[in-house]
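Need residues for this backbone.
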């Protein structure tokens, strides 16, 4: 019921009589319905799950707080919405405008005679419950195991794709459901690509290899990045870059606490990198929230003056990327606690040289 109360607080703040939810992630969060199909309708005094026959029994079993309504060609979602609007004197309904297609919105507007107002629910899932934290902690622990395994697996002459496939296989062996996003494996000069998804490039001795991956466990995600070296480094600048990123990352991690702003946390890492002359080579935000989605509210970056709160889980992931040379990124999942912080991903942050 606490989660439904969050929605009703948002309704109250925005003078809404109801909220219509279609995001699969928010439907899962509120009613354990993980599907692109169906809607949730939250009114001042009631809550409805509007689904077709495929999901009716499942939702009745899993969402006891909801009145489950079966939608069909004979009784469409528009029919039901108009019934409830009349019954509960609803005049204004909030919608997830950033998640509702133009076509679906137009159909709603044509068939349902009420005022619709687009309201962001980005912050709805920001504070994690103890149950959610445990799922993400488990996902992070599996990621740590997978990274340790891949260090013993990778060999000179392998392709980045081979490393990716082994990570996916091992994640499932360790009871992870799947990877939480397309895995990044970027070696050598490709390390300069912050989102360099695994390719058929052959990994060579002397190259730095950046691996950015996560684990999906019970519909919750982890997200971590490590950069390691295959053999010995031939380029001293890359070693220097690694140490700068490591310092910037850990100084930011140590600064995580309730009450600090996301923009100030970003500046801690960014200032260190800028003072070393690599500011233009760190072009992305310091981090982001993580949860049901691998990228969630809040953004940890410039200009975002939101205050961190206990229960948030965020990533800290500074990087330096130089075209034609390579790149380094180190990323951890960090829980904001009342006492300060807890790092959930704990793979070694020192530069590891793999014999391969």
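Answer:
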């Amino acid at each position: 019921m606490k989660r439904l109360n969050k929605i009703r607080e948002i309704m109250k703040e925005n003078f809404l009589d109801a909220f219509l939810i279609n995001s699969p992630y928010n439907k899962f969060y509120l009613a354990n319905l993980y599907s692109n199909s169906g809607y949730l309708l939250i009114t001042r005094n009631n809550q409805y799950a509007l689904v077709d026959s495929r999901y009716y029994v499942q939702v009745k079993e899993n969402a006891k707080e909801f009145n489950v309504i079966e939608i069909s060609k004979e009784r469409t979602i528009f029919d039901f919405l108009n019934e409830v609007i009349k019954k509960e004197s609803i005049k204004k309904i909030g919608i997830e405008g950033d998640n509702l297609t133009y076509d679906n919105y137009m159909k709603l507007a044509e068939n349902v005679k009420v005022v619709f107002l687009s309201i962001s629910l980005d912050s709805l899932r920001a504070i994690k419950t103890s149950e959610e934290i445990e799922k993400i902690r488990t996902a992070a622990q599996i990621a740590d195991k997978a990274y340790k395994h891949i260090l013993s697996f990778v060999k000179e002459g392998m392709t980045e794709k081979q490393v990716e496939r082994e990570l996916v296989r091992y994640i499932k062996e360790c009871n992870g459901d799947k990877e939480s996003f397309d895995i990044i494996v970027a070696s050598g000069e490709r390390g300069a690509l912050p989102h360099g998804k695994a390719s058929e490039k052959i990994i060579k001795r002397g190259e730095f290899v950046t691996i950015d991956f996560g684990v999906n466990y019970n519909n919750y995600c982890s997200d971590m990045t490590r950069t390691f070296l295959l053999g010995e480094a031939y380029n001293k600048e890359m070693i220097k870059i690694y140490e700068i990123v490591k310092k910037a990352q850990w100084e930011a991690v140590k600064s995580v606490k309730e009450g600090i702003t996301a923009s100030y946390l970003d500046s801690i890492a960014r200032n260190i990198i800028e003072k070393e002359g690599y500011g233009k080579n760190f072009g992305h935000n310091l981090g982001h929230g993580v949860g049901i989605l691998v990228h969630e509210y809040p953004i940890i970056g410039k200009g975002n003056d939101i205050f961190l709160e206990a229960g948030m889980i965020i990533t800290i992931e500074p990087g330096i990327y130089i075209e034609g040379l390579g790149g380094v990124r180190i990323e951890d999942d960090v829980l904001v606690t009342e006492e300060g912080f807890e790092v959930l991903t704990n793979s070694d942050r020192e530069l590891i040289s793999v014999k391969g």
